[in-house]
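Researcher: Here's my situation. A collaborator sent me these components and asked whether they could plausibly form a single complex. I don't have experimental data yet, so a predicted model of the whole assembly would be a useful starting point for our discussion.
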Amino acid sequence: MVNFVFAADSISSAAVDGSCASGSGVWDESSRTCTLTNNMHVTGLWGEGLSNYTLDCNGYSIHGYYLGQGDISLSYVTNFAIKNCQIYDFYTGVYIANSVNVAISNSQFFSNSHTGVKSYRSTKINLYDNNFFSNVNQDIFLQSSGDINFFRNNVQSENYSVYEENNSNINIFNNNFSANPIQIYSPSFSNIFENYWSDYPGQDLDGDNIGDTLLPHHGDNYPFVIQNGWLNSSPPQPDQNFEIISFSPEIEEEFIGHIVWNSETGTQFSSVEWAYNVPEPHNVSDAFITEEEQGIMLIAPNVCADSIYFRIHYSDGVVDKYSDWQMIDMIPHPDMGSTLTCGTTASSIDSYASASGGNGKGGNDPPLVTGPPLIVPSEYFTPEVGIEVVKFVTIGSCLDEGWVSWGCALDVGTMVPVFAPVKLAKGAKIVKGLDALNSSRKYIIFTGSLDKLAVSTRQFKLILNQTKYKIIGSRIKTWVDLGIAKLDTTEGKITIVFENLAEYAVKFGDDAIVRLKGVGVTNELMEVAIKNNANLDETLNIVKPQSKLNVAWLENGNSSKGLIHIEERHASQFLDNGIATDDIPNAIYNALKQPIKIQPSKDYRGGWCYFKLIEGTANYVRVVVASNGFVLTANPQSNFKCGG
Amino acid sequence: MSTFRIEPRIRKVSIDDDLLKYPDVPFYDQSIFFTSFFGKLYFDFDGNKLKKLKHSISISDDNCLNEYLSDFYLRLLNSIPKVIKGKKVEIGMTDSGNCFILKPENDKILITFYYDLTSEESNIKNFRISLDQFVREAVRSAQEFVEKIVEINPKLENEKHISEIIKLKEKIQSKIKKP
């Protein structure tokens, strides 16, 4: 039996640069892709040192000859992609070691005797849209690796689903983890979010399909309660226009933490020129990276470009150099159909278009550079500054507090290209850079449509009364309808008009607000009542008393206060004076709004008694209101006594 | 010597009662929390107890006066320095237009029950006891109220109404002890 080897054997007949072996598949030199035409029954495959190589199984399988032995070994590979494969009956399905930029997608890994996919000492690993099941020890084993994105996978293991140790920057999101004995082992504090976990015992309280209780679950603060819940979230809206409601640098830092800002040195500078679609002079823009204007550029997918083009401009004060144009494909979001593309996903890593080289000058029909890498060659660097295209995944559905609230038109798992000056040193001036990031809103082009928010599940961060809250995007629509918030589509700005009301809505929902507005209560009255500790959910009505108090409200209360108390304790007295129980609330409101006399409470806690003339044996209805406006009690009375 | 007792009767406290939750009470506001001390007062006047004559709701079927107890004790204790000085004092009720009128008569005090509505009237209109007896019973009863409340939730000792009652009570006690 032949051992298939990428580099020197069956698939590859062309040694280390790879190709397809005769009979195993079809080799396309332009895309450097081997597309299988048969199932492969092999003892193993070995790729060492390959770069810019795609293995497309085209639905065919690669499976072990000796059951449970061997693997597909990728060692020291760069820019390597495997897709559309069924890989089974090996010891380890795919073993990635000492490699950079490997993407495995749309494949199935099962019945491997140890591990589905293992990454060891490798970086920039993207595993997505795969199915893992019945792999004996674990489906995924990540060890001493970094910059790993694991998303949109279905995972059903016999033991560990994901086992990782000693890694850095792992993002695990939008996966279905089902019926795994051990869902995840992650001592490296991965970024785990928006996954479905079959063992999640919590509840979704607000109907957004994201759990709200018993959090975090396996480190996931936003667990979906249904499989593929992220697919039900709204696609990117091409016509949203949103301002940063708030901004959280620490979250941003976490997200793009390896970006280090630097400044212009003398007359030297590097800048990025970028464009949407096929660049033409009018839509080519640039941003100079200087000390004063450290212009990080984020290309928002919301403009729905089919692709993004960029190149680097370097000047040493004498000579200007331009890199070739590079293109990043914008992969359609699943919900957007094929005609509207508003995001570039991780799959774009292995899907750069190939074309002829660039013309080296700016602005005129720039041709495309062939293939990766994204890092621009060093000749375009200033001495201490490089420019790198950094791609990072949105937290999705705007669930992340900081950065998504800034440009919250990005969707689940969207990869966003960010152009940033970069230096190998880490840390340092990130916050300053983030300020620039914040100000770079001008590069995000949205058009406004409030209605689109009504179906959005994206979340926005709000700071209300010095406390941070998150709300889903559709609530913004409700709030605008209720007059709690205003949306300025010209400025792209949300303004919270009634802060207390908004905070109440975040905490307790909108139902009470809608109900009270239905009985004529204004937002202004609700705002004051909430400030005074009103429980709107228990409140029947809010009125503005004639004087002394700005607001008074009647709550259901209990046997000691409010309407329940009044009905239990004083209904018979009201009835004696011709006021039926059902009419008591109106009698109270009338007394508050049109009193014949208002007496101060003689208690130190303050408050007032409002008296209204009635026809009966008692002369008045007395309404006792606490100093905050809460209607404590009410009773027919013949005098003007008010306690004390 | 006449017998005179005021017994505070705390309402039944449910498991989610604000008295138990204090100070972690949802929508807490000091100006309304006193309502949690709604309860009953049982009066014994020489073996006689309050009885409703009509369909009074101020007086319960078990012969007690319904009222916000912290309010009552604050007013009761605040009245003592005044009646000791010989001043007539009115102790109003929060939950009705009723009141007690305390009228010092040398070393005695006349307690008059004023009922705002005729339907609220009881069998007892006036009662006369020694001033010293009145003061001592007021302080004792306030102490009993505080103890019962703190037994429900020790943290209530710091609640503003309760702490004020404790302070007033101790102040009066210190004066009583003086020769």
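Model: Some features of this prediction you could bring to your collaborator: The mean pLDDT of chain A is 68. The radius of gyration of chain A is 32 Å.
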